Amino acid sequence: MLPIIVDGKTVAYLAVNFSTGDLLMAQRAITELTRTEPYPKEIQETFLRSSLPLGQILENFLEDCHRPAHLLDRKDRIELVRRLHDLGAFQMRGTVREIAGRAWDQPRRCLQLS
Description:
mainly alpha
């Protein structure tokens, strides 16, 4: 109980009642929701199946097409995406961002994959 004092005199008491059972149930619910369990399997990192880095794959494709990236037609862009997919490039984290970043780094070789 907490006294409420006005001008040096106690005028009321404030009592806060709570059920420890409700608090315990809330604590269990929060524990259950935030619990983490160890992952039973080892997480495998994915790498390109080819020994070529992504940049070299893109350069080789552009050489095969005999034109810069900004002149690729829809068929060639689809073929480029298919080739990258077949090599497993899109299974690696950050690959899409890296490909898109090359468009900003080298404007004359702008890769528009859409």
